[in-house]
Amino acid sequence: MPKNKGGGGSKGGGGDSAAPKDKKGGTAVKVRHILCEKQSKINEALEKLRAGEKFNNVATQFSEDKARQGGDLGWMTRGSMVGPFQDAAFALSPSTVDSPQYTDPPVKTNFGYHIIMIEGKK
To answer: Which tens digit of pLDDT belongs to each residue from 76-89?
Structure first.
């Protein structure tokens, strides 16, 4: 596959065949999350956030997926996330890891329980 130069655009992977969906809230979000299989563990992470710990530190400590490096999933577009996760992500307002606005209660998907925050919308 040829490598694209410059412009950190999206990574392809399909989804371009459908017409763009201009729904309320933008078409992409910069997402961080904490994913835990067990509800008891996600509740521990939630308590840390409520106590004022930085989102990225809690994600590194608790998340059970590839996003362990501070929970950063990068920019994600509508249609690339599972339903409940996507709905929650687009409903949030952008915030920072120092003062995060996150999903409380956690969102349940087939992957487990997520605490989601977003850092940007476009």
So the answer is: 999 999 999 999 99
